[in-house]
Amino acid sequence: MAKIVKLISKNFGNITPGSVEDYVKAGGYAGLRKAMQMDPQKIIEEVKKSNLMGRGGAGYPTGVKWEQAYANPNKPEYVVCNGDEGEPGTYKDRFILSKDPLRLIEGMTIAAYVFKIKEGYIYVRGEYLGLQDIINGAIKNAEKANYLGDNILGSDFSFHIQVVWGAGAYVCGENTALLESIEGKSGRPRKKPPYLTHVGLHQAPTLLQNVETYSNISYIVEHGGEEYASYGTKYSGGTKLVCLSGNVVNRGVYEIPFGTPIREILYEIGGGIPNGRKLKFVQLGGSSGACFKDDKLDTPMCYKALRDNRLKLGSGALLVVDDSNCVIDFLKCITEFFIHESCGKCTPCREGNTRIYETIDKFSKGEAKLEDLSTLSRLSEVMKNASFCGLGQAATTALTDCMKYMKDEFLEHIDGHCRAGVCSMFSEEE
To answer: Cβ contacts of residue 374 below 8 Å, gap of 6+?
Structure first.
């Protein structure tokens, strides 16, 4: 059985979310208490030793980011948490926010202590409004217990957190668009550089990390960076919350040590594919993530190992697709999503997604010609190279991979046949 560990997920279902009393009894706030007795640079050193990579998708070393921000004469003035979890198939941050929000708050508070920051923001996607009472209640409870607010634990360190709710825009998961939204502007990405540690919220230096990233900080400080790193690989320290969805028996969120092969996650933790169906492909990291077949299932969940196999971890979501699904319909669904979520700022993304959808739709109706494959490749390349931000640049990742690994299905649709028998032309015939 593949190993499941519980470092940041140990409280899930075991405490009342937002209860400081429960959280402290479970060992909570030991990291903050220890941090406030440490030199800030020592804390940064432990985060570096942990080999913690940013869990929002980019995978940038957290300790290096903190070190660079600390070296800047103009240190960060804001701590911001990206909780705009809009990637389809990804719901790990929702588990943290709904089941153990104080772990996130403690991590942000430690970060604020390092940089002597007084103000923080948690930006949460609009679709998570049902968590409003839990998150706001956790903040109020932390303030009452003096783990947040003025003169924390009797010190001269004060830190306040506000929650900002998005309006359901996927593009606000991009850090600069998120900051624009907090400022009350339209959530559209900024040009980089300058980077956020120099020019961020309200044009001030800003430390911005993902929910899962901050949630690891208290464990790292309490137990040491080397212990945390020991759970993972040389290139990927610690653990990862993985979301399993699609055609798999045991859907859900699981915390696994880095280095666990994808095959073990799918077939041992996930219980395999139900109803005797066969695996068609897997998508890693949400709708903007790569698609691959059985030959890459033995790749370890590790930033370097994945990169060596031309894959990216992204959010860590794994969507399992069995042979009852039509790859053309799958791509239509994804492209529809990106059409809806494009902010419209740049032409390649705004128009490219629409043109791609129209072309894929021709395949689903049996109206496509061979040259339409070239059209899809050309549009994909333009979007990848010319889109303003990561949304447009990665929107056609699945399309590119599916054309590479399942080109025969595109050709079958040109001939008027759907292998899975579920796409538009088949349905219309029925």
So the answer is: none
CB 197 within 8 A of CB 67: no
pLDDT tens for each residue of 223-256: 999 999 999 999 999 999 999 999 999 999 999 9
Per-residue CA distances from 265 to 71, 85, 113, 227, 232 (Å): 40, 22, 37, 23, 15
Cα separation of 60 and 313, whole Å?
Answer: 12
Domains and CATH numbers, the chain: 20-229 (3.40.50.11540), 239-322 (3.10.20.600), 327-429 (1.20.1440.230)
Specify the pTM. 0.94
DSSP track, 172-236: GGSHHHHHHHHTTS---PPPSSSPTTTS-GGGS-EEEEEHHHHHHHHHHHHH-HHHHHTTS-SSS
Q: Which pLDDT tens digit goes with each residue over 306-347?
A: 999 999 998 899 999 999 999 999 999 999 999 999 999 999
- In this structure, what token pair is assigned to residue 72? 């800047």
